[in-house]
Amino acid sequence: MKKGIGQHSIGDAFDSFMLIKESSRGVASNGKPFLTLILRDNTGEIEAKLWDITSDDEAVFVGEKIVKLTGEVNQFRGKAQLKITSIRPAQTTDGLHVSDFVEKAPVEKEILMEKLTEAIFEMKNPAMQRIVRAFIKKYQEALLTYPAASKNHHEYVSGLAHHIVSMLSLAKEIHHLYPQVNKDLLYAGVILHDLGKLKELSGVITTSYTLEGKLLGHIPMMVEEIGHIAKELQIEGEEVLILQHLVLSHHGKAEWGSPKPPLVREAEILHLIDLIDAKMNMLNRALENVKPGEFTERLFAMDNRTFYKPLFEE
Amino acid sequence: MKKGIGQHSIGDAFDSFMLIKESSRGVASNGKPFLTLILRDNTGEIEAKLWDITSDDEAVFVGEKIVKLTGEVNQFRGKAQLKITSIRPAQTTDGLHVSDFVEKAPVEKEILMEKLTEAIFEMKNPAMQRIVRAFIKKYQEALLTYPAASKNHHEYVSGLAHHIVSMLSLAKEIHHLYPQVNKDLLYAGVILHDLGKLKELSGVITTSYTLEGKLLGHIPMMVEEIGHIAKELQIEGEEVLILQHLVLSHHGKAEWGSPKPPLVREAEILHLIDLIDAKMNMLNRALENVKPGEFTERLFAMDNRTFYKPLFEE
Amino acid sequence: MKKGIGQHSIGDAFDSFMLIKESSRGVASNGKPFLTLILRDNTGEIEAKLWDITSDDEAVFVGEKIVKLTGEVNQFRGKAQLKITSIRPAQTTDGLHVSDFVEKAPVEKEILMEKLTEAIFEMKNPAMQRIVRAFIKKYQEALLTYPAASKNHHEYVSGLAHHIVSMLSLAKEIHHLYPQVNKDLLYAGVILHDLGKLKELSGVITTSYTLEGKLLGHIPMMVEEIGHIAKELQIEGEEVLILQHLVLSHHGKAEWGSPKPPLVREAEILHLIDLIDAKMNMLNRALENVKPGEFTERLFAMDNRTFYKPLFEE
Amino acid sequence: MKKGIGQHSIGDAFDSFMLIKESSRGVASNGKPFLTLILRDNTGEIEAKLWDITSDDEAVFVGEKIVKLTGEVNQFRGKAQLKITSIRPAQTTDGLHVSDFVEKAPVEKEILMEKLTEAIFEMKNPAMQRIVRAFIKKYQEALLTYPAASKNHHEYVSGLAHHIVSMLSLAKEIHHLYPQVNKDLLYAGVILHDLGKLKELSGVITTSYTLEGKLLGHIPMMVEEIGHIAKELQIEGEEVLILQHLVLSHHGKAEWGSPKPPLVREAEILHLIDLIDAKMNMLNRALENVKPGEFTERLFAMDNRTFYKPLFEE
Amino acid sequence: MKKGIGQHSIGDAFDSFMLIKESSRGVASNGKPFLTLILRDNTGEIEAKLWDITSDDEAVFVGEKIVKLTGEVNQFRGKAQLKITSIRPAQTTDGLHVSDFVEKAPVEKEILMEKLTEAIFEMKNPAMQRIVRAFIKKYQEALLTYPAASKNHHEYVSGLAHHIVSMLSLAKEIHHLYPQVNKDLLYAGVILHDLGKLKELSGVITTSYTLEGKLLGHIPMMVEEIGHIAKELQIEGEEVLILQHLVLSHHGKAEWGSPKPPLVREAEILHLIDLIDAKMNMLNRALENVKPGEFTERLFAMDNRTFYKPLFEE
Amino acid sequence: MKKGIGQHSIGDAFDSFMLIKESSRGVASNGKPFLTLILRDNTGEIEAKLWDITSDDEAVFVGEKIVKLTGEVNQFRGKAQLKITSIRPAQTTDGLHVSDFVEKAPVEKEILMEKLTEAIFEMKNPAMQRIVRAFIKKYQEALLTYPAASKNHHEYVSGLAHHIVSMLSLAKEIHHLYPQVNKDLLYAGVILHDLGKLKELSGVITTSYTLEGKLLGHIPMMVEEIGHIAKELQIEGEEVLILQHLVLSHHGKAEWGSPKPPLVREAEILHLIDLIDAKMNMLNRALENVKPGEFTERLFAMDNRTFYKPLFEE
């Protein structure tokens, strides 16, 4: 792909493909309808106006559609804006996918799937293994593409799988250092804990919340689904309840969305390694953008702190 | 029934039936096992020691068993204690039931069931009506005997049904005053909101918490079961989700056990009338025990306040 | 009345009466004074500039004055603004009242007064009845026109009386369901609880706070006035103290402005039904503005929540 | 007076006068009534039982009565207890007063009154001066005997006057250092701020709370009374309102009982010097009881801290 | 000095000296670099753009530089902006100092130093006196010029010394009223408590935070330095520890930056008089700007309150 | 060593060595002094009274003394008590050490020291390495014997070193999984973070707090000492400041004793792995004491939670 939108300056001509992230209709002072488009490629975002539209245009230029654009990068009220000269929907022959236009995990899907499979293979408790397998089978595709959150941490394609695989590595080491830890239970908890997000978030690109997500939230949704799947698989025994408890309690406190705090050792660890991996993801990405001797931007999900990169880091 | 334990003074002889509420084994300084029994009838509770027990005794004198006792009311470290002269399990021919020994709702089971049935009959939305009916059918017996809580409010036999029926009256009036309220939804919420307690509490008498109750709590358990039952009844549509939301949010705040606050009008009302009925139950019972011009004992579940009964109340 | 300001579009001519809600003086870059007017009718608000004013103009075009305007609806920095061509004060012969230009309670003043009178008539305790009557007599006119609050709930003409009358209906039903409740005390509490707002808020239209309102607040002001009036009526006995307590405690907690929490049964109920009626008022009005399947705007006074209207609401 | 109860050891005979602080009736295991007496002199307190009492005894040996006792100091469950051999009420001829048996302020009443009078004399604003004078006249006797609180600070006879006079000295110095401060207003605030306690606390010795104290609290009671007195004196003008505000806000925050925080300079200072004098009183008395190098007992009203007395303090 | 920038109106010509408070480089749409300057004199601030700059300009027109400017006061987006006609750095011969362009304490440096010296001279404890002397000697110049804070209170030249000297007066009076207070310790605490700010804040004019200030804060920095200096002076004994404790605890609570609360009498007083002097400074300056009958602007550091100046204040 | 005190039952004779943990003097009702001893061996604790003591006894039987005892295990008010028949101080020839009587880390001192040395050897940053080495050299002996805390976690001999070594393993793995982490900095932070406890706690056995510990706390004490040692070693550069920051911020929040929150990546990780290792230590030891299907006792330092050991754990 050519130079992305993130590398253009004011005044540059632009001629490339972009993804429509959002499209909203307005009416201009001359009474004619227009579209405000938020366009993105994998280097950044830009706003554009499409004037004097037809009802066909409205139906075509919608969210998650890929388009071919020519135009010029202008400035409007201090922000860059793309002045559109021509626009057309991408065609199958253009060979493009939505995923070409969004940020992705630094690890390939195949690798992530492989590591997940390995972890499940290591599990010895059949009840837990079967439940985990059933979930992976049911949600494999979504799991490998969804972000882990709509913002803050792992908010990119395959973010959820990336988060799970990182946490599995942490879980393995924790088990190594504290051998009393039940590895099967911890692995199962890691893999399942956030799968409810696949139904809470509406999609990979727009990641708004579904109605179910808003009214129930991913935690109770997942507790319920573990119950359904265990019923279908005719699994009984404490494993089901304990797995539900791990999911239910993994936010740690009632104020953070867990009606019960962790009351099983592996539930406590699950909460802690979830915290660590989320924080390391945010911190490492923020620190990459600054030079030694500088502070990062404020990180909202880390109590709005700004972090310092010491001079001795290079 | 004769004079109850609550009406005996220190030094009185005692000869009557009581219910064993709790039984726990200890070993005396002479090395012999004994039982500490908490006994109750519907006028109060007393502790007793049963010395030099056999393993048969251990198997017989357990919680929820009715026994015939003779003895004397003594005092030990400032508390009344029953010195047992003789003890035997009650026999079928004694014609007694556990329910004779516990406090009961001021309304009969039959009336409570009738009022529940009436309310369900009034409902017009078929999805909600069918779900509510399925629950009533499944849990009818437990529903009519369980308390609404292990302490604080409606903590007596049929307390849960009594609480529901009171709330249905409130719901009816609220609907009358604010006709925008969806009566079917509010009725369904009222009936279902606390049914999870039937699985959270271990029984009518001892009302300790089940393992499931401790690790998940009645709210997520009930959200899950609404899902299961809707699946079995093949009911789809927003009604299922909204009913789950009403149950999930009825404690009002995350800190109080609801991971989502009420986000539907009837969910907000459900939370409010649950509060009112619980508080009125506590307040009215506490104020009955004091005379005008006096304060009640401290009510733990009402921020430990003590309430005043004005002189002009007769 | 003709088409209101709320129904005009940019570019429309305007020729009608409006109420001046606020008027503030500025000095233009040419050194001449001008007025910024906030104008309203019962369909909405608009801003206007009145240039090159005389000191007469300043004295005439003040808050709560009705004016006849002609002009054109323009746009300035993205907001509608009325360009004034002519302006004159309304005359008596125009037959207009301030109340024609503001939102009103959905129930007529006469009905509200009737319901209040009925409730007072039902009271049997002479001390409470006399105190309530004295307040109604003293404040009748203001009571029937003031809003219940400057924003959030019942923030319209007769809002306070509307709130009281709604709460009286709730009180009646609560008494019906829990007959231990002292109806006279609860009625008196409902009628008096917010009357302090008549002195806390500066008026019906602008509803800013008086100095007394800012430095003392409506609760202590009302506690004091109950004392004054009881003295004048030479009423002694616990009724006075208990009524003062109901007013003092009706916000429920110190953090919410009640230095004492409710410590009398009817004080607790008063707090709860005040909550219910305020919340129902906010919720019902917000939900009227959305269609099934949509969420309302955020409701600041309900913890900033946004509420969902289910699809099955028609 | 002879050796006080605080100087007796277990086994000592006792023969002296004491004050009954509390008297409560019980029934012994033999069925006969007895009294539990809390007795005090100005060196400490002791418990005693008076067995086999008559109804005359019950009427005579009540709180705030002075009695002549002989007996022996015993020990019961680890606490000292007075075994009574004989008891009789003190007679007028014994020449004793309740105040002989309680802790007193380190400054004489006459001096306290003098300092109060001086401060009032210094005031120039006639409205404030007249209001303060009216209060002093009305409450002079109680003001000079009441404690400032039932525990924590200045909890001794004349404690309230002592607290006021100390604060007046602080006020004078603050005015000296920050001459913008309105001395009259600050003096009036200092003198009035806690007078409501004269009606909130039931007396000098037992210092329990009156009903009015429990249901309204001293702050709203005092705000009301300033209103009454200003009415009687026909004083109008902002002084009344501002004085009410100073009283209302002097606890500083809603959570601490002030529905409005200080919003006038002198209200803020009043709050701060009230804090300082209360804390210095607690601290100085606690530190007197320990040697350099030791920590005091925990001071409940200072966040349960324990304070260190450095070695270099002597 | 001539009319300051604060006295100019839009359209006025300007010809005077100003101080550059901040200077930041930008690139214009024509690709050429420019500087945005924040300029101030002791009457106020204004923004200006310096277009088409050379790299020499960039090196010369930096923060804390005094410049001679001619130009015109314009308006840009509603804010005043200085259009620069000519600019040159001030020369030594202009005889100007940075301190001519900033707000200053209302007391002269010499007086402040004198009062400090007096207080130290009064101290009798040699250990404390020597430590305090060492600090004053080391930091004298900075101490007499730094503000006490970067905003809120005493945020002007010599603000820190002014704050200390005010607090010394308060300390003297407190010692007078409560003679148990150790005056030497309290004086030492007052003088040392905020000296860490000399290393926490980067300078007198810009008062941003140093890296050390951001990562450690002035309190731990000062605790450490007291340790260093005591070591150098070979002072041992509890005085060092107690002084460190006074500094450590002077914010009063962990949430406010003191890991230990005050646990020594003088530490508690230090905390209280620090509060009083800071609040009086903020309040008095805010009230000076309003007329009787008005409220001040909101004071952020006083819980965002707005204070009322009563009508009877002249 | 023979059967320990923890394995004795009521009525057993006892004849062995124990350590006096605490000794306090009392006076019996017969007027003679006695000692209350808290005795311990490495299996548990018991109380004993030593009656009719001489002043020699008082001087001999003090805390941290080893004694030879014969007697009988009795019961007093429901708690075991050792009735002493004979007691004598242990002699050098008994070959016993205090450390024989206390709980110890499950890893030998030598191993702990070796692992510490290895970690320091791995460090490449000379400034950090030299500072860490200086501390280890200065405190080696105490470091290898002190507990990590006076209760809650690692509260046993060598507990601090055990905690550090566990955290070093976690640090190594975290660095492995997130290679951006600065291993030297994290290692140095882990080793230094709690060394202040060596001066905060008074000793290995009694672990009460020193005066310095109470008035400053281990965090500011350690920040100061890093400064002193860096000065002595003439180390300059950001390493010193960053290490001080890691120590200062390792409790994570102001409320928990860190005046600055972590503002450097490794500071955040240090806080997190400190939490994990402390929690794992508490959890694993509590769960060892219960069987599958049971709950542990309440763990105070984990929000008073009680943890469940699932049935499938064996």
UniProtKB/TrEMBL annotation, chains A, B, C, D, E, F:
The keyword tRNA processing does not apply. Residues 163-279 form the HD domain. InterPro entries: HD/PDEase_dom, HD_domain, NA-bd_OB-fold, NA-bd_OB_tRNA, YhaM_exoribonuc/phosphodiest. Keywords: Hydrolase. Pfam families: HD, tRNA_anti-codon. SMART domains: HDc. This is 3'-5' exoribonuclease YhaM. It comes from Virgibacillus byunsanensis. The lineage of its organism: Bacteria, Bacillati, Bacillota, Bacilli, Bacillales.
